[in-house]
Amino acid sequence: MAFVFSNQMKIWKVKLWSPGSNQLWRKMHNVTELIDMKTMRDNMQKMMKSQEIWLQTANRKSVMSNVPSEQSQLPSKFMSDSLITGVIPLSTGGEDKLKYLNPYNQVRFGRLLEDLDTLAVACCYKHNLVPGLAAGEVLVPRAIWTVLVDRIDLTSAFNDVSIDEDIKLTGHVSWVGKSSMESTIQVSQRNSEGVDMKLLEAVFVMVARDPVENKAAIVNRLHARNSEEKNILELSRNHQALRKSMSDESLLKTIPNESERSLIHKIFIDTLDSTATTFKVRRKPADTIWMEDAMLKTVRICFPEQKNIYNKIFGGFLMRQAFELAWANACVYSKSRCITVAVDDIIFRAPVSIGSFLYLSSQVGYTDGHRMQKEQTNLRCQLSCPKPTLRV
Predict the structure, then answer these.
(1) In this predicted model, what pLDDT tens digit does every residue of 216-266 receive, in sequence order?
(2) CB within 10 Å: which end of the chain, N or C, has fewer?
């Protein structure tokens, strides 16, 4: 996962990447029914019949037998079918407000990551509601997991976010494959003039699994009602193609090209001590530090209170832990307070079990003091979790 920070107090404008259309977002903001994030999580737990005791496992075999095996047999959905508007009730004060407060009397971005993940999953659940199930049954028998946070871009308004005004999160499913889905989310807050200011946009990629057979599960198709929604679908398809292209160009699959090889060679020459007779002796260029000195690590224990509805560790919690370590590393590296500019490529490789030791490692990977007349730091955070051993 990558986080981009700046050590300047004024954030710059960035090009928004997500495919939300103005008309659809306006429709979202006009929704009068708002669900606070705690209620949203509670509703999902009831919908999925989540167990309070984390060692229990729900039996979904009978429910999965009611789900068609072909995608064409499932009812098609529209973007409005998955539309959800959530709210973070900061204006009411209390413990909830304190949870979102950082030391600088601003909103904790790590807490927003948790809520974004919750809303992205909730939109996908709503998109895949199975009609005709009896009361008390699991309403969405599929297991839906976050596999990728494609991009989170912050606007200039995020630097002026108020801790005393409610924050609104609106989202919907914007693209559907056979077993994967894309959720697009926008976060806004009303300013002193009564205007909803967009704070950020985010794109999450989710996947559906059959919890009985432990294989990919089909999801409801997505159709567009009008030309505007067709444009959203087309943009989302382009994003999917771009993700595949970038995956194919990964260093694990493709050797460096000519320009990349030239850059690597230049770095090698710049750090080579020409007076030494061995390559093991390196020279640090002026005004630089070694990458090994720009690393920060920590370890966390995963407790049941951090579980999701499938009795694994909540992905939003993992993102918050990674972000807060990355932010701390950026501040230590720059010796100043940093602000968040963007989040890119958070990839979930495997679920994390309760009782795991969570090893987090943050590394400054790139700095540039000229491109935007301010230093920006790109950090990557690696999470590794050994399997827990239970003693009886």
Answers:
(1) 889 999 999 888 888 888 888 888 888 777 777 777 788 888 998 998 899
(2) C
Contact 2, 333 (CB under 8 A): no
Q: What is the mean pLDDT of residues 350-358?
A: 87
Cα(326)–Cα(338) distance, rounded to whole angstroms?
11
- The bridge status of strand 84-88 relative to strand 35-36 is parallel
Tokens of 168: 């609104």
Which residues pair with residue 366 across a beta bridge?
Answer: 378
Q: What are phi and psi of 172, to 5 degrees?
A: -160, 165
Inter-CA distances, 251 with 78, 119, 242, 246, 384, Å: 38, 33, 16, 10, 21
Report the alpha-carbon distance of residue 324 to residue 303 in Å, rounded: 18
176: number of CA atoms within 13 Å, CB side? Answer: 25
Question: pTM of whole model > 0.70?
Answer: yes
Instruction: Say if CB 97 and CB 105 are below 8 A apart.
Output: no
Of 154, 182, 191, 185, nearest to 171 (Cα)?
Answer: 185
Dihedrals phi, psi of 15, to nearest 5 degrees: -80, 125
The amino acid that residue 281 corresponds to is V
pLDDT tens profile 95-138: 778 899 998 888 999 999 999 999 999 999 899 886 665 545 55
- Alpha-carbon gap, residue 148 to 101, rounded angstroms: 27
Q: Which residues of 185-199 are buried (b: 16+ CB within 10 A; e: fewer)?
A: bbbbbbeeeeebbbb
Residues 6+ apart with CB under 8 A from 110: 319, 320, 321, 323, 324, 327
Q: Would residue 238 be called left, alpha or beta, if left means φ above 0 and alpha means ψ between -120 and 50 degrees? A: alpha
Length of the chain equals: 392
150: nearest Cα among 245, 85, 240 = 240
CA pair distance 200, 169, nearest whole angstrom: 10
Q: Measured at the alpha carbon of residue 44, what is the angle toward residues 117 and 221, in degrees to the nearest 5?
A: 75
Pair of tokens at residue 184: 């697009």
pLDDT tens string 148-161: 998 898 998 888 89
> Mean pLDDT throughout 304-328?
90
